[in-house]
Amino acid sequence: MFDRAEIGERAILVHMDVQDEIFREDLGEFKELVTSAGAEIVDIVTTSRNKPEVKYFVGSGKAKEIAELVKQHEVEVVLFNHALSPSQERNLETIFQCRVLDRTGLILDIFAQRARSFEGKLQVELAQLKHMMTRLIRGWTHLERQKGGIGLRGPGETQLETDRRLLNQRVKQINKRLEKVRKQREQGRQSRRKAEIPTISLVGYTNAGKSTLFNRLADDNVYVQDQLFATLDPTLRRVEFTSDVKVILADTVGFIRHLPHDLVEAFRSTLQETTEAQLLLHVIDCSDENREGNIDEVESVLSQIGADNVYLIQVMNKIDQAGMRPRIDYRSDGSVKRVWLSAMSGEGIDLLKETLINHFREEVLSGEICLKPAQTKIRAKLFDLGVVEAENVDEEGCYHLNVRISKRDYQQLIQREQLTEDLLTQETCL
């Protein structure tokens, strides 16, 4: 391995056009990834082959050409817009005499820069370690521990085996810590389930505008930047659209084409918020030329994490950049299929709020509740809920409350206070 500078590394990008869809990547997206990682793009080398070459991924002639460019520009790292095998990475580092990083390694590096929470840092480290374990090399022959002779007998393992053992120990430690965090997160989810507050999870391709939409809906100031993976750690906020429609809004990490499997596995606990949500808002950049491919990638990841059965509404964002007007598209059964809006300008946000309110609005009950003087606790609870429209007190000190209350809050009240189901229809005090 080669030493790595903190920021501003000079980099050469390598992109290959191949016929096989498995290896095909987008160059524009790759340049955005490199910029997000903080590297300085010195040159871009493009080539085309029917399929990758086994030893260098690119041809041997192209590899020598890149090596000359590395010397000429004094480049510190060569970045490939493809997944390289460990042997290809080692062969390329030998000929380039600098660090070589593939697409997966680049995405892991960006995640390592962006992780802020304790859980996020652990998840990224876990993914990095799993990636690194496949790339351990026999580069420590001067520290060989299996030499014979007096004074040269070691503990019976090579340096490579020692490295693997230490990495495995660290992976176990991280998994134990993550298990504790998962239990804490599960407690939070159970609390929300008990309170019966529905969760809306924002999902979508990276840089589709999820955080901007989150800020619009939650009236918050979550970090927003025009770069890939600006949001890494999940953010949850309680949002009250109306007195009877209260939800938990969750902003999640963006997906990307060929998202590394280790990252999907490492962030499974974070993405659990998505699988257990009552509604998914799939935020889509409608001005993106590759939007259909991006939609397919997001749906693929949702299927991987078991969230493909959650009710989903598409949010076609950035209509201001596409020169379109806000509107709602409906399915054949009358339900909302997609909402067209601009989270940046605010156009169409009212249509989305109206859709969410109608989706979660419950049956509202109206009537009069009569309480005895000793039942001030129930009276206070009704005022806390904001459901009392009028109040009168009779000669005996009983409270007559005209209320308008959601069916869910009403059911919770009668269960918690052990009241009768016909509380709203009784003419006399309890």
Question: How would you characterize this protein structure?
Answer:
The protein has 430 residues and is α/β, with parallel strands linked by helices. The protein has 14 helices and 14 strands. The chain has helices at residues 27-37, 60-73, 86-96, 103-114, 118-133, 159-194, 210-218, 261-266, 272-275, 291-304, 319-322, 349-360, 376-385, 407-416; strands at residues 10-18, 40-49, 77-80, 99-101, 199-204, 235-242, 245-251, 279-285, 312-317, 327-330, 336-340, 364-371, 388-393, 399-406. The protein has a seven-stranded mixed β-sheet with strand order 6-7-5-8-9-11-10, sandwiched between helices. It has a four-stranded parallel β-sheet with strand order 2-1-3-4, with helices on both faces. The longest helix is centred in the middle third of the chain and has 36 residues, at 159-194. The chain starts with 9 loop residues before the first strand and ends in a 14-residue tail after the last helix. The relative contact order is 0.08. Mean pLDDT is 79; it is low at 1-7, 138-154 and 426-430.
